[in-house]
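Let us work through a complete example step by step.
Step 1: write down the sequence.
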Amino acid sequence: EVAAGAEFTLGFLLGERGDSDGERAAYGAAIADGRAAGTPDGLVQAAKAGVNLGDLLHKHGDYQGAQAASEAAISDGRAAGTPDGLVQASKAGSNLGNFLSERGYLDTAAAAYEAAIADGRSAGTPEGLARAAVAGINLGVLLGERSDPDDTRAADDARAAYEAALADGHAAGTLDGREAVDRAERALALLDALDSTPGPAPLSPPA
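Step 2: predict the structure and record it as tokens.
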């Protein structure tokens, strides 16, 4: 797991220098060594590297690779069986939802966000709750955008997701949690405004 941690750091530094090939190789090595260690910390390192690898592959247009890396990171994070592992699983799940949503797989994306929320809450830590809040906001955006604006259930489902994200963000009590609270509050304010405005309108908040 020490090797996996060093390789993860190397991947990050290579990415900062713009060496995408080296970054990808370092994250791949971190994943392999973290799994080979067979310890909770090793699996957490593998999950962290998988999250970053998924982001890297997505940035370079390898959408299937990004999805596979994210799914593997979820599996590694959960297998670690620790709060840190579940935080990484939540990060990967939220990313996975984003990747799937971009490609039009909306139902699968919603399921990924819901799983990310559950993983973040199960971590039982401030960071986990903040990750759950982020995933909840993403879910709210998706529910609003994919539904018929004339269907009041669309707004109700989106509102429920934002309200849950608001609660998770408050419970986190961290900077990331407060940022999620701000986003959720803006989204709920937009829904309140739409409730008093006749005619269809978009249900997702501004970024």
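Step 3: interpret the result. DSSP finds nine helices and no strands in the chain.
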